[in-house]
């Protein structure tokens, strides 16, 4: 593999470790735990892995060498910067347990386990990937690991390779499935420990125990850099409004973090839209008001940040989508038989009055998308809807109306952007490189402790890395019961933006000023070499959340 000068320099970076993990380690057992809610149901579903104690690793005098262990690893779901360092930390950790320990990577996500597709991860291979972005060392995939047949099929290859522990690196759903797998293997007496690691750029796998998921830090820094560049261009030319959609399937953590970093003129937070029961027109009006307010000062430029999942959080659109799903599920053939240019009118004639009115008000491209693009479960694929274009177009129409009424006399030219895939495989920031390596080393300590059904956890993350606290959290502790596909299931609670939390409060306290002035911040690229103030700062979200 040909490497750039920066890649070569970066491959030599030694991640900073929590002090407790530098030498030999001992484990301190905490109190027995409970799930965040629905304790009775979760306990019944996880009789073998419920109520386990939290674990903390502490430095110890050098002890006897452990036994060699074969370990499997899976990358699950969307890419997030730092995944390779989790694997490197795990590799180094199990080699410290015993030099004959071996690591096997299952290829292209959970499917690799089911299809028995794997490769051994040797020291030479691991060295190639230290501190690099991407998941390409073994690939990732979205196959859900949730059926007994899949578990049994996986067990065949685990037995064949004498794998005694499986580490699943994934988001809330993958870690939920990891907990179910841990319980199943324990219930049938299969000697395989299952350990999870918290991954997702979306930042929605966090709670009292998991301070942040890995990848969020780097991805948001990459987006903030690019948004900063767009803002500087915007302020230089002073002729465009930039509508920027940001990844993060449902929660708005990425949009909020970027807003905190770049101070845009407008940032929409989906959770607030839902809490205030806003309509699409309310959202459009709120943006148009800022455009008009700035135009009155002669400033026909600005930036608007839009979270990817916004459309699903607008209560009226949620209800429109639900009715459309239902209608199309029952009348698919009838609908497809209608000529393309008459489909819009056909749908309008079939929906309830409120939804029909809303549907009729949507630009034709979005209206068409709502009826055509449905996933295998019959749901509209809202992530494909170009919300940034929808909002830019609707704000333009609103301003044109206001111009006719004499309420607005500015110029409005818009440009749209979507930043998502650009940030998912970026070279990890020092924070993510250190955090991920520590998560991998912690996973190895959990394996050495013989436990199963735990998630690797590293806490105290706004302190310098050597003060971080490594341990294990029973995954059942983070669970509650939720309705999924019509059935109540035990799942890890997804963290949405907390409207009472400090990051949102800071944003809310400053947004009017950012709208009325031009207070853009240009964060610049991630730095790897330099002082900790430049290279090691965690996300603003994490800093604000941990401010006393
Ligand atoms: P994970 O939850 O698996 O980490 O993935 C998050 C994400 O990057 C979302 O932000 C985005 O909506 C989605 O993946 C895109 O999915 P895909 O990679 O399948 O296009």
Structure description:
The protein has 22 helices and 15 strands. By secondary structure, the protein is α/β, with parallel strands linked by helices. It has two domains: 5-215 and 428-484, Rossmann fold (3-Layer(aba) Sandwich); 218-423 and 501-546, Rossmann fold (3-Layer(aba) Sandwich). A nine-stranded mixed sheet has the order 1-2-13-12-7-6-3-4-5, with helices on both faces. A four-stranded parallel sheet has the order 9-10-8-11, sandwiched between helices. Strand 6, helix 7 and strand 7 (193-198) form a beta-alpha-beta unit. The longest helix has 22 residues, at 216-237. The chain starts with a helix and ends with a helix. The site of 1,6-di-O-phosphono-beta-D-fructofuranose has 13 residues, from loops.
- The tally of domains stands at 2
Shape: globular
The low-confidence parts are: none
User: Quick one: how many beta strands?
Assistant: 15
CATH first level of the largest domain: Alpha Beta
CATH architecture assignment name of the largest domain = 3-Layer(aba) Sandwich
Total helical elements: 22
Q: How are the strands of the largest sheet arranged?
A: 1-2-13-12-7-6-3-4-5
Could you please say which CATH topology of the largest domain applies here? Rossmann fold
Radius of gyration: 25 Å
SS-based structural class? Answer: alpha/beta
What are the bound molecules?
1,6-di-O-phosphono-beta-D-fructofuranose
Estimated share of beta-strand residues:
15-25%
């Amino acid at each position: 593999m040909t490497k750039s000068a920066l890649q070569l320099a970066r491959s030599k970076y030694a991640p900073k470790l929590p002090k407790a993990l530098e030498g030999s380690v001992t484990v301190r057992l905490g109190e027995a735990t409970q799930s965040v809610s629905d304790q009775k149901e979760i306990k019944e579903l996880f009789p073998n892995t419920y109520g386990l104690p939290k674990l903390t690793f502490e430095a110890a005098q050098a002890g006897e060498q452990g036994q060699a262990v074969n370990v499997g690893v899976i990358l699950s779901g969307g890419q997030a910067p730092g995944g390779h360092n989790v694997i490197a930390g795990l590799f180094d950790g199990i080699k410290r347990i015993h030099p004959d320990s071996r690591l096997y990577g299952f290829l292209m996500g959970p499917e690799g386990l089911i299809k028995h597709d794997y490769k051994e991860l040797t020291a030479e291979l691991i060295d190639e990937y230290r501190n690099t972005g991407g998941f390409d060392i073994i690939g990732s995939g979205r196959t859900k690991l949730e059926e007994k047949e899949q578990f049994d099929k996986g067990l065949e290859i685990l037995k064949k390779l004498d794998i005694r522990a499986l580490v699943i690196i994934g988001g809330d759903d993958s870690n939920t499935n990891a907990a179910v797998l841990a319980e199943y293997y324990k219930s049938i007496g299969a000697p395989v420990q299952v350990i999870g690691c918290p991954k997702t750029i979306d930042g929605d796998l966090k709670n009292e125990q998991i301070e942040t998921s890995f990848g969020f830090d780097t991805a948001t820094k990459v987006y903030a850099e690019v948004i900063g560049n767009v803002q500087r261009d915007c302020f230089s030319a002073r002729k465009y409004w930039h509508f920027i959609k940001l990844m993060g399937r449902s929660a708005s953590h990425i949009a909020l973090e970027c807003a905190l970093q770049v101070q845009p003129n407008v940032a929409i937070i989906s959770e607030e839209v839902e809490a205030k029961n806003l309509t699409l027109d309310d959202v459009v009006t709120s943006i148009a008001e800022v455009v008009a307010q700035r135009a009155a000062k002669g400033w026909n430029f600005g930036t608007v940040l839009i979270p990817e999942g916004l459309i699903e959080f607008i209560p009226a659109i949620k209800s429109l989508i639900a009715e459309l799903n239902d209608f199309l599920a029952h009348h698919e053939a009838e609908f497809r038989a209608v000529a393309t240019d008459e489909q819009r009118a056909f749908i309008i004639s079939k929906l309830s009055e409120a939804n029909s009115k809303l549907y009729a008000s949507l630009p034709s491209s979005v209206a068409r998308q709502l009826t055509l693009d449905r996933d295998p479960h019959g749901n509209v694929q809202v992530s494909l809807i170009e919300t940034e274009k929808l909002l830019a177009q609707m704000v333009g129409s609103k301003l044109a109306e206001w111009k006719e009424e004499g309420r607005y006399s500015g110029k409005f030219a818009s440009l749209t952007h979507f930043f998502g895939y650009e940030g998912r495989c970026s070279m990890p920031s020092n924070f993510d490189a250190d955090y991920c390596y520590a998560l991998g080393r912690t996973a190895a300590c959990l394996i050495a402790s013989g436990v199963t059904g735990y998630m690797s956890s590293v806490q105290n993350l706004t302190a310098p890395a050597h003060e971080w606290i490594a341990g294990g959290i029973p995954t059942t502790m983070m669970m509650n019961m939720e309705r999924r596909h019509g059935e109540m299931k035990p799942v890890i609670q997804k963290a949405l933006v907390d409207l009472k939390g400090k990051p949102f409060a800071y944003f809310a306290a400053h947004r009017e000023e950012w709208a009325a002035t031009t207070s853009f911040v240009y964060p610049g690229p991630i730095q790897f070499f330099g002082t900790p103030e430049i290279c090691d700062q965690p996300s603003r979200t994490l800093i604000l959340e941990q401010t006393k």
